[in-house]
Amino acid sequence: MDIPISMAPSTTPARRAQATEAVHAGREDLAALGLHAPPIDLSTTYPSYDSRGEAERIDSFAATGARLDGPPVYARLDNPTTARFETALARLEGTASAVAFASGMAALTAVLLARASMGLRHVVAVRPLYGCSDHLLGAGLLGTEVTWTDPAGIAEAIRPDTGLVIVETPANPTLAEVDIRAVAHSCGSVPLLVDNTFATPILQRPVEHGARIVLHSATKYLGGHGDVMGGVVACDEEFAARLRQVRFATGGVLHPMAGYLLLRGLATLPVRVRAASANAAELARRLSADPRIARVHYPELGGAMVSFEVYGDPHGVISAVRLITPAVSLGSVDTLIQHPASISHRIVDEGDRQSSGVGDRLLRMSVGLEDVEDLWADLCQALSGEEPVRQAVSAQPARTAARTVPESRPAGR
Ligand SMILES: *Cc1c(COP(=O)(O)O)cnc(C)c1O
């Protein structure tokens, strides 16, 4: 049993702190239902003895894309458990609405189709982007035409048929950052989409800086435990309505079990992001001082991702880690490391990869919640097989830790 999704807005309370929203948003009706944990509604269909009424509801959805009053009719239209996750994510991002999909790529696909359906097939994008996002835009699979540029070139790249400007910040895998406010200004009336997968709404809320659409691979930090795949778009209600119509017609829906797990993941998002970011900042600091490392990339914003370039063989590091898992993806409770040029960005043309900073010596690490000394010990042995250099844990907050450290001579230590 679950209550109709459309009742949610009327119970929306005044804005509360993010830590409070993380554990309460999307759950406000539970006590009145006599429940504590959210129910999982696995129904694919919903009985109705009133087909005239259903006809009206379907007409209304087709015309407006607004959420149906009452049960969803069919699970491809909506699902009450997934709707709880959407409500909670919208609250955390500070948007009116959010629409969930089967994966991050399904979410990006729906955004591109929604804009193309308005005759706006041209996209302006800044590299680097996640490898498959780059591929989806560039390969023309959806008839998208893309102009690649840097942030300074956005205004000039915009045409009358431009439907979207896309940036990732911090970007996958170099952690390069863009100034969202400045870029949003360059976009004029064209909506700016920010892929906020790496920062999460805990570190950065792009709509507060002028972005109109926020995209997440929910597979990463929002789920947070490496066991659920999903995607979500946070935006205003007008665009959300369009996305629901695209989702209904193309079918990239999030499974209700995934919706349940993602809502559960959001509850611990603030705590996980803060703890993992503290570990990452400390590892970035130690790597920056390590003579085996040519360059460390760590965002000004902070966060739990660290990328670094080694002087030695990056494949040797991947094969030597023992506590850290050599695997693609990110945002889980445990630490993962991968070689972007071989895996996450393999699908990007080599020249484009190189010119956007994704070199052959770059490794990308998603730092988890293990003890930082155990992580450092594993990294050290993987880098050289030598005993780890023990260092005092820095008391500094994440954002004052290591920056992108320029290619420096190995210091005398
Ligand atoms: C993983 C990822 C995606 C794609 O998400 P999936 O859930 O794997 O489809 C998009 N953007 C970024 C930044 C990612 O890391």
What features would you describe in this structure?
The chain has 413 residues and is α/β, with parallel strands linked by helices. The chain has a domain at 270-403: Aspartate Aminotransferase, domain 1 (Alpha-Beta Complex), CATH 3.90.1150. Helix content is 35%, strand content 14%. It contains 13 helices and twelve strands. It has helices at residues 18-24, 51-64, 80-93, 104-116, 131-138, 154-157, 180-187, 200-203, 237-250, 256-288, 314-320, 350-355, 372-384; strands at residues 97-101, 122-126, 145-149, 162-168, 192-195, 213-217, 231-235, 293-297, 305-310, 325-326, 336-338, 362-366. It has a seven-stranded mixed beta sheet, sandwiched between helices. Strands 8-9-12-11-10 form a five-stranded mixed beta sheet, covered by helices on one side. Helix 8 (200-203) links the parallel strand 5 and strand 6. The protein is globular. The chain starts with 17 loop residues before the first helix and ends in a 29-residue tail after the last helix. Pyridoxal-5'-phosphate (PLP) binds at residues 103-105, 130, 132-133, 168, 172, 195, 197, 217, 219-220, 229, 231.
